[in-house]
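User: For a benchmark we're assembling, each entry needs the component sequences followed by a predicted structure for the full assembly. Here are entry 17's components. Please fill in the structure.
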Amino acid sequence: QKEVEQNSGPLSVPEGAIASLNCTYSDRGSQSFFWYRQYSGKSPELIMSIYSNGDKEDGRFTAQLNKASQYVSLLIRDSQPSDSATYLCAVNMWRGYQKVTFGTGTKLQVIP
Amino acid sequence: KAGVTQTPRYLIKTRGQQVTLSCSPISGHRSVSWYQQTPGQGLQFLFEYFSETQRNKGNFPGRFSGRQFSNSRSEMNVSTLELGDSALYLCASSLEAGGDTQYFGPGTRLTVL
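Assistant: Structure for entry 17:
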């Protein structure tokens, strides 16, 4: 099992719809979770972090965390073509030291 | 506050050469992590430096090395370049070591011919 697992996609959604991106992780003791957006040829950009179970909203983005199920998701409301990018999930894990581990990312395509 | 800067942005080298990449973290950040990104491989962790000390290292050969200076700037070096080293090299800075929120620089695109 991968430490941080994401569906590679592509996930295609029509403009204006809700895009739902999912991520599962293996370390039950993980405490910090991050979502990054990466446009083609660019570096990852932090969207938001989440530390507690439940939802955290920031504009059109909502991160959801369920530690019991070892699952974190990102919802993008009113998806725009400019949201088309690869979304990386990152999890803080203990491997003898604290370390951030990245998933391989989900490619999102928003269709106009 | 200025973001993470990386130099150079683009590099073309030939097999067998060596290369040095530089990263300046956000002011006040003391931790610098390096990643290699290739199509289909995702972000591969190279190493993390904090207070001039390498805290941990990814699964890369000894040809990949790095260091951090007292002002938190970091360099990574790749010796005896191979074609497979062609990648986007990303530097990320964070306030503290290990698991803290990371902010990425623009990356250095290395092409090995």
